[in-house]
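1st attempt posting a full record on here, be nice pls
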Amino acid sequence: MSERDASAAGLPAQNAADHQPDQPAQRVPDREKTLLEQMGGISGLAYSAVPIVVFVLVSSFTSLMPAIWSAIGVAVGIAIFRLVRKEPLQPAISGVLGVAVCSFIAYRSGDAKGFFLLGIWTSLIYGGVFLASVVVRWPLVGVAWSALNGLGFSWRKQRRALRGYDLATLAWTTVFAAKYVVQQWLYDSDQTGWLAFARIAMGYPLTGLALIVTVWAIRRAAKVAELEKAEAQQDPGAIPSNPSLS
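the predicted structure (as tokens):
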């Protein structure tokens, strides 16, 4: 709203400026809403558990091949259901491909527990990559968030923003490490049923905790950027500082 428009509306010019919707921090919560959506949403997390449960139940009462085909059939059915509901296509396709690859590994190994090998080793690889990104000072949480939203990487020069992204990335590292250690132990112990339970039970709580730390890091980085921008506007010749945030 311009000063002329504000005057016509009976508002003081200063109050009109206060109504300008140009605060970057106000747009951060809207971007945060897309974080879980990019992972398939709450429904995507629930759908991913169904083929696992079906596989274990069918393999317990019959044999490996019926379990494989049942899991694939359920995954395809869920994908079609999501497409009919016009939900995001990528999580549906990923779900089918993931079940298909896990089923193929189980078929090649000749053992139902092979269904979980992909997830176990994926957790190890992801954990290593996330940890390495912190070591080289390019924490993956910050990199991924900036790339998805086109925000740039200026936060790497802001010590407190970088520290927040480091902590969020280390939280995901801990999640993947815990999944690998527990599920690898169950795999070695031939506990297929408990493997399924661990895969599902560890998925929701640990992912939720990591998401909480991630959202905190995103808001922290946005606040640091906003404060430094305000300082630069007040004193254009000053060297940007790293304000302390509680």
